[in-house]
Design a protein that fits this description.
Order of helices and strands: HEHHEHEHEHEHEEEHHHEEHEEEH
CATH superfamily of the largest domain: Type I PLP-dependent aspartate aminotransferase-like (Major domain)
Bound molecules: pyridoxal-5'-phosphate
Helix content: 25-40%
CATH architecture of the largest domain: 3-Layer(aba) Sandwich
Length: 360
């Protein structure tokens, strides 16, 4: 049995099933299938001896790079050890009493809030609306009285993109009632034009979380950041421990941001391979894959498969294929799983293995 509530447990599966790690194909974590940008390894190796010093405490080069990349002032950006770090600091800094999380959602929002003793409520995106969030209903719910709302866009694990204008209505509604709006854009790089990053100048209550681990393929290096109004960033900085982004991660991230070819190629590859994967999944009797704006797809298992999502995950794990069982996501039940969009040959292997396991 796999215990953790995240994907990407390659080492654990290797130990349980006695399969070499390099024989395992991991569809459970949504990492760029093209790997990290081609120049990143050399950039890190060249600077390896920087480990002899403490990392730049201000992450000056990285913040400058991000500022250029996004066209956002440097004093509106703060970098951390993955965006997850901020999910733990935001409740500590702002001490919200009541939080609303738009679900299904990443489990770390709730864990960070729990440590600070925040009472958590959920706003469930409805299955019958294919998990599109009803913005009017959400705003109505918010007005019942919350101090903070968490919204992931595109959503994980559904892949649903809420248009920027609709999201701005949520931020405005939170602003009216004096609540913070935390918008997690861990997967927005695939649809950057839908980012609400520029709205930080309009809404002092808006906190945008960004991750470099997925799109740039560096989950092991841990780089994320937050964009918000300068006073909000200043407040978070007061609490944050020093040096949480190590020297090599800073170098790697700086080099990744300037590789325009890799960024374009990633968007094109994901867009075409996502189409292929969705169609191929939908051709398997009993499965229906959702449309997605990100590099993964949510899949529903219909009647007659004879396995629930946990059973399917365990069965595929024996074959060295990892999928994300979604049964521990709020409101999803045990008939959903999520798969990352990987390289074409890997996606074909997934389809082949699924066909062998699911014989309707
Ligand atoms: C929606 C979402 N936000 C944030 C994260 C964490 O990203 P990071 O690696 O930057 O901490 C994840 C990781 O899976 C995620 O799924």
């Amino acid at each position: 049995m796999i215990k953790r509530d995240h994907g990407g447990n390659v080492g654990e599966i290797s130990r349980i099933h006695g399969i070499d790690e390099d024989k395992i194909v991991d569809f459970s974590a949504n990492i760029n299938p093209l790997g990290y940008p081609p120049g990143l390894r050399d950039a890190v190796i060249k600077e390896f001896d920087s480990v002899l010093n403490y990392p730049d405490i201000d992450s000056f080069d990285l913040i400058s790079g991000l500022s250029k990349y996004h066209g956002i002032d440097q004093n509106s950006i703060l970098v951390g050890n993955g965006s997850t770090e901020f999910m733990y600091w935001i409740p500590v800094v702002f001490k919200p009493k009541k939080a609303l999380i738009v679900t299904p959602a990443f489990s770390e929002y709730e864990k960070g809030l729990a440590i600070s003793g925040t009472k958590v409520s959920y706003f469930q995106a409805e299955e019958e609306n294919d998990f599109t969030v009803d913005i009017d209903r959400l705003c109505k719910c918010l007005r019942e009285g919350f101090d903070i709302v968490y919204f992931c866009n595109p959503a994980n694990p559904t892949g649903i993109l809420t248009p920027k204008n609709d999201l701005c209505r949520v931020v405005a509604c939170a602003d009216e009632i004096g609540a913070l709006a935390v918008i997690d854009e861990a997967f927005i790089d695939f649809v950057e034009e839908e980012s609400v990053k520029e709205e930080i100048f309009r809404f002092p209550n808006l906190i945008v979380l960004r991750s470099m681990t997925k799109f740039f393929g560096i989950p092991g290096l841990r780089v994320g950041y937050v964009m918000a109004s300068a006073p909000c960033i200043k407040k978070i900085r007061e609490y944050k421990p020093p040096w949480t982004v190590n020297s090599l991660a800073q170098k790697a991230a700086v080099s990744a941001l300037v590789d325009g070819d890799y960024i374009r190629e990633t968007r094109q590859y994901i867009s075409s391979e996502r189409k292929f994967l969705k169609n191929a999944l939908n051709e398997i009797p009993g499965l229906s894959a959702f449309g997605s704006a990100a590099n993964f797809s949510l899949v529903f298992m219909g009647d007659g498969i004879g396995l629930n999502s946990t059973g399917l995950r365990d069965r595929l794990a024996q074959e060295g294929i990892l999928i994300r069982d979604c049964s521990n996501f709020q409101g999803l039940g045990d008939r959903y799983f999520r798969v990352a969009v990987k390289r074409h040959e890997q996606n074909m292997l997934l389809i082949e293995k699924l066909k062998a396991v699911i014989r309707l």
